[in-house]
Design goal:
Elements (H helix, E strand, L loop, with lengths): L6 E5 L2 E14 L2 E10 L4 E2 L3 E2 L1 H10 L2 E2 L7 E4 L3 E4 L9 H15 L5 H14 L3 H12 L18 H8 L15 H23 L14 E3 L24 E3 L2 E3 L2 H9 L3 H9 L3 H9 L7 H19 L1 H8 L6 E3 L17 H17 L6
Parallel strand pairs: 3-7, 9-12
Antiparallel strand pairs: 1-2, 2-3, 2-6, 3-4, 4-5, 7-8, 10-11
Length: 373
């Protein structure tokens, strides 16, 4: 299960989502508790990137360990070391590989073994033949045994209705304590699935009162650029901070948001004047780099940028229209000079993109008449 263990690696500038789980590695007869990183492209990092087939080989040889000898020495790096006493393991090599394959499916948004089982159950419920039941039973047994408790997402039932349904009246489930499935057990399981279908359909039709969680529009990428002057139809280039759109803030005039940002960042008045007079935003940045920064600037900079961007889009309605036209898209802002302001292929914090989304929302609120700016 992915749970909240979210990570990623970067390959050729692309973020590959992943997750991780704990495993033991046996190296030189010593067992090390470490992390197994699993990525959406099917690669697994266990002290080096391997494929699923290569992971199976490491499990076969015991390098990735699922069983442990009495008295075997183990450690967790710089945390503790111990010896095994009456060790028990809840995973076999086959079970671990099956869980890894499920995780790769989940990372890609594909049905995992549980999803495939529930799809087979839906087929059986729509056409209750023994052949369809057998297919549903096979799909259920293909779920890793460790995951055959919450396929239905019901913490109270722990998949008991599912076990009964795929077994059928007069048969037994794979768990001995279930006993033989009676007709009453089976009817109750059918009633459970009918009720489940009703509330599942109801949930699917609900619209969150506050709107969707994710954006509908494709992400907008604002690549690093070096504009030298305004153009008639700038498109998203006009959303760059260094685009020459003059702004007035607190009675002072600046050639662009970038000029204003760097001018306000320095303490020396003469340097500030030179930055304002700089021919390009790149020159303004270079001048600011050589000057002392205001005390506490790193704590104030996001508020300063928000104020400047609000000024830009209220003083330039034509640029505000370009920003509004991005809808609810995620704004990805590249800034080769700053991993704070830029996304930079997933290595930066993208604060410029975030603030542009905030300013866009304020413009939309103003247009909707929710409040005045």
């Amino acid at each position: 299960m992915i749970s909240n263990r979210i990570t990623y690696r970067t390959a050729d500038g692309v973020r590959i989502p992943g997750t991780w789980r704990h495993v033991f590695i046996c190296n030189g007869g010593h067992y090390f508790l470490t992390d197994l990183f699993i990525y959406a492209d099917g690669l697994i990092d266990c002290w080096g990137l391997v494929t699923v087939v290569e992971l199976e080989e490491k499990l076969r040889t015991g390098w990735v360990a699922t069983s442990f000898p009495e008295g075997g020495e183990a450690s967790a790096d710089e945390l503790a070391e111990w010896k095994f006493r009456e060790p028990r393991s809840w995973r076999t090599p086959e079970l671990l590989v099956a869980e890894v394959r499920d995780t790769i499916d989940q990372l890609n948004g594909r049905p995992d073994s549980t999803g495939r089982c529930l799809a087979a159950v839906d087929v059986f419920l729509a056409d209750r033949t023994e052949a369809n039941r057998a297919a549903a039973l096979a799909a259920f047994l293909n779920i890793p045994k460790s995951q055959r408790r919450y396929a239905l997402g019901d913490m109270d039932r722990k998949d008991q209705p599912l076990r009964v349904l795929v077994a059928g009246p007069g048969a037994q489930t794979y768990l001995p304590f279930d006993g033989t499935v009676t007709q009453k057990d089976y009817d109750n399981a059918l009633a459970y699935f009918e009720e489940r279908a009703r509330w599942t359909a109801e949930i699917a039709t609900r619209v969150p009162a506050d709107g969707p969680v994710a954006s509908h529009a494709p992400a907008v990428q604002l690549y690093h650029s070096f504009p030298t002057g305004p153009v008639d139809d700038p498109g998203t280039l006009g959303l760059r901070h260094d685009y020459p759109a003059p702004i007035t803030v607190d009675g002072s005039n600046y050639p662009s948001v970038a000029h204003a940002y760097w001018a306000l960042s320095v303490t020396d008045p003469q340097t500030r004047l030179a930055i304002v007079a700089a021919e390009t935003a790149a020159t303004a940045h270079a001048l600011a780099t050589e000057a002392p920064r205001r005390e506490g600037w790193e704590h104030a900079r996001t508020a300063v940028m928000t104020r400047l961007l609000n000024a830009k889009y209220h003083q330039h309605p034509e640029l505000a229209e370009i920003l509004l036209a991005t809808g609810d898209a995620t704004v990805i802002y590249d800034d080769m000079k700053s991993a704070f302001w830029g996304d930079n292929a997933g290595r930066g914090r993208n604060w410029s993109g975030r603030i542009l989304e905030l300013v866009r929302s304020e413009l939309q609120a103003q247009r909707a008449g929710i409040f005045r700016m």
